[in-house]
Amino acid sequence: MSSMLVCLDFDGTLAELHPDPYAVRIHPGAERAIRRLAAAPDTEVVILTGRHIAGIRQILPADLPVTVVGSHGAEPGPTLSAADRAYLDNIEAQLAPLATEGAYVEVKPFQRVLHVAQVRDPAVAQAILAAANAIDTGGRPKTQGHNVVEFSAVSITKGSFLAEYKRAFDVTVFAGDDDTDEHAIAVLGPRDIGIKVGAKPSIATVRLDDVDAMAEFLAQLADERQA
Fold this sequence. Notes:
By secondary structure, the chain is of the alpha/beta class. 31% of the residues lie in helices and 20% in strands. The protein folds into two domains: 4-76 and 156-226, Rossmann fold, CATH 3.40.50.1000; 82-152, Trehalose-6-phosphate phosphatase related protein, domain 2 (Alpha-Beta Plaits, 2-Layer Sandwich).
C-alpha cells in the first residue's frame, strides 16, 4: 500500500465557521473518520491550521491521533528575532484602535490577526478590514481570510510547510476552504488530491459543498485505507 498523508485545514473544513472561534467543535463524522485513518497502515493525519497550537488544542479532543501544525505551518517553528518581535508589537499597536464594534486582535506566536466576524454591521466590518489592509507591512506577509486580516512576521505558508512535509509520502490528500489553503493546493503533485470545501474559487481538482460532505469523504477514504 502506498503511504498517504492526509493534511486538513480545520475551520470551514472539519468544523463549521462561527463568530466565536472557541465555540466550534470538530464534526463528529470527521472525527470518527480521522481516528480510523490514523489507525490505517502507512497513513498519517495532519491538521494544518491558521490557528495557533495552543488555541486549536483547546477545541480538539485531547486524544485525537493527529499531528497538529499551527499558524499556517509556522508553529512549531523558528525562534523570532528581536526585529520580528518589534514588528509584531508595531502591528499590534496599529491594530488596537481598529478593535471596536466587536472587532478584536488575536495574538499568535508568529502573527497578529484582526477579526471582524462579531461586528454586526457589514459595512462597518468592511471599513475596519480596509483600514487594516492599509497598514504598511514593509514587505512582510499580510493575508485576508474569512472576516480576518493576518499580519505575519515570517514567510512560512501552508504551501511551504506542505511542500517539505509531503516528501516522506507517496500520496498526499489536502483539504481546505479558505484563500490561505490555495498555497497548499498549489504544491500538490499529479498523484495527490486537492480538495476545496465550499464555493470559493480554487485550483483544486475536487470540490465538496460543505463540512458534512468533507466528513463523508474522509469516511470513504478511511474505508479504502482499511480495506
